[in-house]
Amino acid sequence: MALSIVLFRRQTERDGKQQDVCLIILHELRGRMTLAMDKFEKLRPVGHLEKYSTARHPLGYYYNVAFTTNYTIPEAFTLPLKDYVYKAIDILIQQHPSLSAIPQDEESEAPYFVRLPEIDLAEQVSFQRRATGISDSELEAFLQTQHDAGFSPPSPYWRLIIFTNNTNVRHFTAIFVYHHALGDGTSGKAFHQTFLHALRCTASLQPGEARQVIPSPKTTLLPNLEIAHPLGLPVSVPYLLKMLFKEFVFSKEDPKLWAGGAFQLPLKTQLRIVVLGPTQTSAIVKVCREHKTTVTCALQTAIARSLFPHLPERYVRVICSGAISSRPWLPENITDLSMGVWVQEFFEHYTRKAVTQESFPWDEAKRSRQTILKELKLKGKNTSVGLLKFVKNYRRDLLESKIGKPRKTAYEVSNLGVLKTEKSEDPSIPQIGRVIFSQSAGVTGSAIEVSVITGADGSLALGISWQTNVVDDQLMQAMIDTLKKELHQLSDQ
């Protein structure tokens, strides 16, 4: 359908006489799609945080999240790889109700989830055979195109791309791409953990047993964050007044704060991948523990330290946005293996003077650790996510009204920790290796997105994305080169 719309638009540009016909055809297509979706089972309203993603998706402000993971299957798996993948996805669809749900009326202020009657895996799972494995530069280019491509109803709001190679037929790379309203970052991690477990359960699969068309389960969709939270994301009056003061009274632009270019369209994602080997990763974890801080806080500090040398001297401050999972204080039916959106954010400030010392500023990393601990103690109280319930019009107030205005946060760091698996040393079962977490650049988000995860192979990977024209590509390359040196020096301490 998307291809047809593009063709119609081109035809309209060439021949104005076709305009009325094109509009009629498009109207009919939309009408048929709406009628089809009206017959789908209605699940529940889209939650406040989920609505932020459903509002920005059709506007082209942010499209998706992706997890790229390397797998190895044993010689005992003699059937075609497609059979094992289809069977494993069948298991996951029964386990994760969000995989068979899509948001309806995304462009409205009252979207809700509906359940697809079935999922045709031939349309959602694609296999691409290569002569050799995909390199990081090729993967960067491929993920950039994926991160600039959204989803269209009534198809599922996720896709799985499998890369195989002729040099190692037992090895494949699986890229899971999904709409942010279906899951947060931890959800992508959960997908691959449960996908690995499902693959291991297919060891006795028989020829013809795997299904291509999967009927959707009747499982209840897990609750949104404000419903799942024991206190409904409480916001105190002093906190609300404080945030209103910052937004409407004291909101003038800070000339000494760097946050990239103003909010702007169109969205075109740039992506670079940085991977640290297991030895270097272990060394960084160790040195962070010795200095009583965490890898997340060291990364936040190192990024600020890597940015300032390449910024004009007039900029002396940057703000980092961080993500925290809300799952620890939610009901027991929401775990790290669940798929849904249960996350909140916090903010940290860094100054040029504090981070550009001769040696690494561990005091700053420890200070950042205290910020996170303070946020964790609140358990969802007085957070920016809790303020979403006061927004009247997401599209107008949170998105379109920001275009042309300066942004405040320079970068976001989302660290999902380690993707752990059971019996990872057993060669007779499928194994999982390196994992890369990446996401679209955000039109109304931070100038730079840094998505972090450590795979089962012990390698820490950073997916660094930014929007074309918001941050200069040469500046980004210089910052990334400096960051690599910083991380290398940390591992040598």
Automatic annotation (TrEMBL):
Coiled coil: none annotated. Pfam families: AATase. It comes from the Eukaryota. SUPFAM superfamilies: CoA-dependent acyltransferases. InterPro entries: Alcohol_O-acetyltransferase, Atf2/Sli1-like, CAT-like_dom_sf. PANTHER family: ALCOHOL O-ACETYLTRANSFERASE 1-RELATED (PTHR28037). This is Alcohol acetyltransferase. It comes from Aspergillus lucknowensis.
